[in-house]
Structure formats: C-alpha cells, structure tokens
Amino acid sequence: IYPFEADQEKNYSLALTHLNLAKQRLPKDREEAHEDIRRFQIKAMVGQGDAIKALTTVEPQDQTFRSVIYALRDQDPNADLSELYAVHARTHPNDPWLHYHKGVDASRRKDYAAAEKLFALAMRYDKEDTYTFRWQRVKMLYELDRFLEAYEKIKPADKTFRDLARMLQRDENGQGLLQLSLRHHQAHPKTYDANYYLAEGYRLSKQHDKADAAAIEAINLGESKYAKNRAFRSRTLNRYDQGRWQDAYDTFGDKDEVFSILSWHMSRQKDAASLRDLLSAHSNADPFWTAEAEYVDKQYAKAKAVLLKHYDQMVEDKSRNLYSTRDRLIRSMLRLKHFDEAEAFLPRITNEYNRDYFGAIVAAVAGNVDLATKRMEAQVDESDDYYLEDVVADMYADEDAGPALMADAFAEFRKKHPKPAED
After folding, report:
1. pLDDT at 19 over 90
2. Which 3 state secondary structure label does DSSP give 59?
C-alpha cells in the first residue's frame, strides 16, 4: 500500500524506501509481486530524474529499457530520449525495442522514411515475430504511398494485405485499395479477404456492378457469420451509394439486417430524408430511429420529445439503442441550452459510469469547471484500466465538450490537463 500512496503523492524517495523494504521481505517465488516492485521502482526513479540510473542498475536491462521509455513518455510525450538511446545502445545495440522506439520518435516527427528503416531493423533483430514492429513498418510505407512495396516485401503477405487494406479503406476514392486488392486477388482469387476488399475497392471507386459481384463472392466464401455479414454490409452500402437502397431493402432478404445497416449509415451520412423514407418502409423500427431522423436534421426539440416519451419503456425493454438514446437526449438538451434539464436527467441514467461520462459533458458545456473535473475523476475511480489522461483526451475529442473546454473558463484546466497532440 505505501508505495502506491507515495507514488500518487509524487514522494518518490519515500516510495523507493518502501519498495526496497518490500523487495527484501517478499519470498523469491512471488514472481508477479517482484515484477510489480521492479515496475514501480523504475517509475519512482524516473519520477525523481534518475532515468539513466534506472536503466543501468535495474535488471534485466532490456526490459528496464522499455519500462523507462514508457515512464518518461507518461511524464512528457515529447521527451528527448536521445541520451537514453545512446546509453542503451552501448550494451544492447541489437535490441529490437531500441530501434522500434527510435522509429516511433521518427514517425512522430513525420520522418516516415527514417522510421520505416528503423522498424525494418527492429524486425531484423526480433526473435519473437512481434506484431507491432511489422505493423508499424507497413504503416510507414503506407504513409509514404509505397503500399505496393510493403505488400511485396513484408511477409507474410496475407497479413500485410489485411493491414494495408484496412488503412486504404479509409481513403474515400478507393483507388489505392482497388489497386492493392486487384494485385492480391490475382494471386489468391478464391479467398474471402481478396474478394471482400476488392468489393470495397470497387464500391469506393464507384464501379458498382463489379463491387456487387465481388461482394456476392465474398459472402459465399465467408466461413463465419461475421465475415458473411461484413460482405453483406458492403453489398448493401453499394446499393445505397447508387441511390438504390430501396432495392436492397426489398430484395436482399433479411429486412431487419438491411435496416440496421442502412439506418446507421444514413445517420453517419446525415441523410435525414432517406432515413425518414426508410422508416416509412420499416414499420417496426425502434422509436430511437424516429428521433434519430430529427436529430440528424438538427431538429433537437423534436428528437428530445420523442426520446423522453419512450425512454422509460426503452430502459424496461433493455433496448439495444439505449446508450445512443441517452447520448442523443443529453446532446439535444445541451444544443437547446437546456442545461438544467440535462442535469436533472442524469439520475435517470442507471449505469454509474455512463452517468459520470455524460455528466462530465453536461458540466463542461455548462461551464462548470469544478463539476466537470470531479466527474472526469470519478470515471477513473470506476474503471481500473481507464486513466485520467484517457478520460481527458475523450473529453477534448467530444463534439460538444471539446469546444467547451477551449473556453476561457477552462484556462487553468488546460494548463493542468493540456489537449493531447494530434498524431
């Protein structure tokens, strides 16, 4: 207990004293506990400015190197680690993690060419086939628009293809994905991945007939329900992109599944008109979707009225859209500047974590700095694997809370909790 308390108080000298006592008294066969002591010892030494000492005195040094890196980056994401690298390189020049972390630094500087070479070195010296080394190298070649080179050079090709395809899928014109998928399909014409991503490449590049044929082939090749559903979604969205979503709804068979795919996509596309037409065709839709059409159309008062009318029944029925219902209700109230109403609604959110999450957004938008901070901290107390910096990052990224945190009232908050740098 004492090292944890001392660490939280940043009394690193006291923490180290207790850690040394714990280490002396702990039986040697308590390996996990000894590892916890080692980890906290490194954190305390880094906290008091002894990062190099920690690296050179806490064994095993190759593992300590990584722990020191993470501790320094927790303190300052932009910390200069060049001295640490130089010291570690003298005794462990072939440590793959040395080259990996130097590559991470280069990628943060957007020097993708240098980063790719460093990640290639990490892969060369790696004896455990560490996924992150390969993935980072693939990502750097993607950033350099050398994705075909990555596909040809980095093995195994099927894994590299999947990683690249997911990255290229984010590009709206689909040309890169189509080029890569055609290459992979030529070598592996009867595989699910080749046909699914080929369908997506054709869809994004607006070659709709070819997209449909490839999606049908992927559905037939899919071995799991997830795989088949993903290809079915691609085929359905291809019809939407053609302006023929009604055809998908009428002919694709499972109307509930087609409705689920189309409704969420129309919502993300802010296509209120099509969503209202879809609701006219799908008579048994959850009331959430009636409100969602209004919300997407920025008719927040109408959205709020529908959701409040059905909220208690949706809670009782354990609606699959309950979280989204709470989200839309709170945001509608905030955008209508009904701050007191939003605050009064919070006790009706039965999930304690969700209540603090939405409560922090409400307090932030209302300009209540102390309450917003308190509710952010409460989320950390309720979730062991969710740290305050993660909560704060989520708040900055939030569409309503983010702009509110940039107001003058939150100037001191921003000094204590700076907005995370964008990658």
Report:
1. no
2. coil
